[in-house]
Amino acid sequence: MSELKEALKASYHLYDRERSSCARRVRIALALKAVPNVILHDVDMTAKEHITDAYRALNPSGAVPTLVVEMQSQSGGTSKFVLTQSTAILEYLDEVFPNLCPLLPPVTEVEQRAKVRELVAIVTQDIFPFVNRRNADRIREIRDSEDDQLAFVTRFLYEGFDAYEKIMENGEACGAKFSVGENVTLADVCLVPQVLQAKMWGVDVCEYGHRWPLINSVIGGLEKIEAFGREMG
């Protein structure tokens, strides 16, 4: 309980970009858990702020998001804790605020927890690395073709969402309210930003209800939750 009190007193500085899928994951989690003292810092990538020495001192990858947690020490000073990967940030928040909208099933539900992580990996490892703007633009440079770039990106979107849908269909999640069971999990937190990013590439998941009915059902439920609806609006 004392650790939670200390966490509630801390300040959470999130360096993000509005349309960044990775940053969206963290913003959704912060909102779901109603984490107090959140300060947003927009990183202007157009002005190349993300590759300045000052920002790289926080995030050596020169990417978003970056979470800086500032806590008052017992001696009266301030300590800082920095995390730079969205999935690490999500799990950190879930461990620091375990009773505020927990994003993993209880530790006794081992298989369900594994399923959540499986779906998270589909999004963060099988889809996102191939469709994020930085990598997609590199494909365009190499091939000198917008058509090849779009074909490359959409291939991984279709294959990734197909896999996500099939895993839900084959598991106990079939017919459930959200990706895994009746409660929001990390899988949902990662799914929504990926659906929004897909739309930027011309793949509107909502128009493929016949292909991804379970995903569409989940999205329909999530958009009614303020933390998700705010990002989807």
Hey, roughly how much beta strand do the residues contain? 5-15%
CATH topology of the largest domain: Glutathione S-transferase Yfyf (Class Pi), Chain A, domain 2
The structural class is alpha+beta
CATH architecture term of the largest domain: Up-down Bundle
**Care to count the β-strands?**
4
Q: Percentage of helical residues?
A: 40-55%
> What would you call the shape?
globular
What's the mean pLDDT score? Answer: 92
Distance between the termini: 36 Å
Q: Under the CATH scheme, which class of the largest domain? A: Mainly Alpha
Radius of gyration: 18 Å
What do you see in this structure?
This protein has 233 residues and is of the alpha+beta class. It has 2 domains: 1-96, Glutaredoxin, CATH 3.40.30.10; 110-230, Up-down Bundle (Glutathione S-transferase Yfyf (Class Pi), Chain A, domain 2). 55% of the residues lie in helices and 10% in strands. It has 10 helices and 4 strands, in the order αβαβαββααααααα. The chain has helices at residues 2-9, 21-32, 53-58, 86-96, 110-131, 133-143, 146-170, 186-200, 213-222, 226-232; strands at 11-16, 38-42, 66-72, 78-83. A 4-stranded mixed β-sheet has the order 2-1-3-4. α2 (21-32) runs antiparallel to α8. The model has no long low-confidence stretch (mean pLDDT 92).
